[in-house]
Amino acid sequence: MSGEARGGRSAQLKHTGLRHGWTTGACATAATTAAYTALLAGDFPDPVTITLPKGQTPSFALAAEELTDAYAMAGIVKDAGDDPDVTHGALIRATVRRLPAGSGVVFRAGPGVGTVTRPGLPLPVGEPAVNPVPRQLMREHVARVAERHGGSGDVEITLSVDDGEEIARSTWNPRLGILGGLSVLGTTGIVVPYSCSAWIDSIRRGVDVARAAGRTHVAGCTGSTSEKTVVAEYGLPEDALLDMGDFAGAVLKYVRRHPVERLTVCGGFAKLSKLAAGHLDLHSARSQVDKGFLARLARRGGADDALAREVSGANTGLAALQMCRAAGVPLGDLVAFAARDEALAVLRGAPVAVDVICVDRAGTVVGRSTVA
Question: What CATH number matches the domain at 6-191, 3.30.300.20, 1.10.760.10, 3.30.2110.10, 3.90.550.10?
Fold first, then answer.
């Protein structure tokens, strides 16, 4: 994973057959480096090479460039490798202008890059949504270019993403109070396929925003149906809703370190049966519904041997639930209580009260626990 990756193309990940990609922060740093070099030296390096925080030196081909007496602009198309990243293929532009000596590096949000409008994020309200690590990476590269070509290093960097405002609608940004476009993200500069690091980071930022807004009750939901359920049950505002998806562990571990008074976990019965069985990643590729476990729970709820065998051989978790409901066995509640207990175990005594709600595909509550 080094300088052989030309033109922003991703390199092959060992053992997986998947290509890694480059974060928006890495692309923005490369575009900034190319633009500032052109502003000082009169020509764009193409490809442009940068050094990432862990020492990798990828090179990126320029997809756009413009040079005037007042500014230089360079653009790079993001390659997220084999990760299903919504920003894959986006054109990330950096426009660099000189500033008076002593001004330092100033960041601006251009079209398609969001602005922070709520407290709780690692940036003050009013700042462009350019995260701290990419900012530091850009500052370092500006300093290197300045030293190489005799500049002061005092510049204004305006970052923009073509169609970024439209792309951002499918991200967490509007809920986090980042308005007007995408965030410029990345801690290592590298996108690892299917690591879902951006989603997990968004969960953490969601908790931060909820805490900063004074929310004492938040809900981790597996999808839009479960979100509607908790809103109907508790009237929670949007900034108290965490789009947990399959990452129950990410929610629980972060809330353990950053407690709120109450956490409701709400999701589909089958997914939450995985949490009840001790799985913290609920994705179908990484955990399966354990019908044997459901059969053991059903026995606790009064199921006889015949029903337990039926549950153990059920095609789906929902089928097992329906069998038990027909027999008067509260499997939904049993799963909710077991999931709550697993959540409390992960929280390790953190001052967080937890309850669990299981729903079916229509959003009907099919199981719930008390608060503990």
Answer: 3.30.2110.10
How is 244-273 classified by DSSP, letter by letter?
-TTBHHHHHHHHHHS--SEEEEEEEHHHHH
Burial classification of residue 306, based on how many CB atoms lie within 10 Å of its CB (0-12 exposed, 13-18 middle, 19 or more buried) = exposed
Bridge partners of 179?
Answer: 115
Token couple for 261: 């008074």
Q: Looking at residue 17, what is its pLDDT?
A: 62
pLDDT band at 5 (very low <50, low <70, confident <90, very high): very low
Where do the structural domains in the chain lie, given as residue ranges?
6-191, 197-368
pTM for the full model? 0.79
Cβ 30 vs Cβ 76: under 8 Å:
yes
Confidence bin at 195 (pLDDT 50/70/90): low
Contacts of 196 (CB under 8 A, 6+ apart): 247
